[in-house]
Amino acid sequence: AAEKSWVRLVTAQTPTNIAVIKYWGKRDETLILPINDSLSVTLDPNHLCTTTTVAVSPAFHQDRMWLNGKEISLAGDRFQNCLREIRKRANDVEEEEKGIKIAKKDWENLHVHIASYNNFPTAAGLASSAAGLACLVFSLAKLMNLKEDQAQLSAIARQGSGSACRSLHGGFVKWIMGNNDDGSDSFAVQVTDEKHWDDLVILIAVVSSRQKETSSTSGMRESVETSLLLKHRAQEIVPKRMIQMEEAIKNKDFPSFARLACADSNQFHATCLDTTPPIFYMNDTSHKIISIVEKWNRAETTPQVAYTFDAGPNAVLIARDRKTASLLLRRMLFHFPPGADVDLNSYVLGDKS
Ligand code: 2P0
After folding, report:
1. Domain limit, last residue, from 174, 192, 210
2. Is the CA virtual torsion 163, 154, 170, 15 positive or negative?
3. Are residues 255 and 123 in the same domain?
4. 110 Cα: distance to centroid of ligand 1 (angstroms)
């Protein structure tokens, strides 16, 4: 029938984010509520990003999703929670030129098709769920004409993957853990925008593209259950560090930023070691990179480069400016010449060129 012939499409692009104060540990596994605040930097949208197109049509008979061209299941609770939360908030949509008219109440009977692409290898061990879930929520919110602001959308993305809530904003972003049991006050807000500190250059050294052995979700569950160090970190260390880190970012104080970021990465990996059984995310190459940066920073009057490692061996190196970044790249190539199994990629924050 003629009224079945339309398709409404929305496409969105979302970059990934790298935490400099780490999220590790949940107090609620279903709502994805963390045990501490975290703070990240969202990468330039030209790099490490997910592009998602969502479509709705009366001709669709079920919700379906494709990731990098391959159909994946939407049956998981996390997808379903996000879809339900977005549908609940859907509004009237009218596209006159296409003859599309969707009333608020129609959304519960309409199905969506979702096609998502990562512009980086999903298997590269780099955070893909953050960009992916953030993009999914953002594009569906546009499709269904949600009126919620970015912070409210971030609370929905959070239920898809914790770190995803921080990718709804650019620049430096903090995820406020919140106190409520229903998650209503656990969302992400921008600390400074993408132009604020655009001297910084991020270099990612892909040490291994192997899939990690312990997923973040199960790793952090085991840490919450067994690590006393994690408890101490969440209650005593991170609250103070968050204040200092925000200060450092607002003042573009690179020495403090670097000191805090490196210490937080090392403490996160220490809590992994303190977990029973212990979790090893870094390897010998990761440790070698830390030594190189530490030695360099100590040889200068002030730190030049910060490092941070997530739930894998890959290094994220943050140089204070472009000149330092090219020196860093040269040093990295000296220690890890081409063919040495370390893949170097640089990403510029808020690049205007
Ligand atoms: C972070 N990571 O703050 C930390 C640092 C890894 C190390 O967020 O279970 O994929 O989906 O909420 O967000 C990775 O954990 O875990 C992560 P779920 P997620 O970026």
Report:
1. 192
2. positive
3. no
4. 32
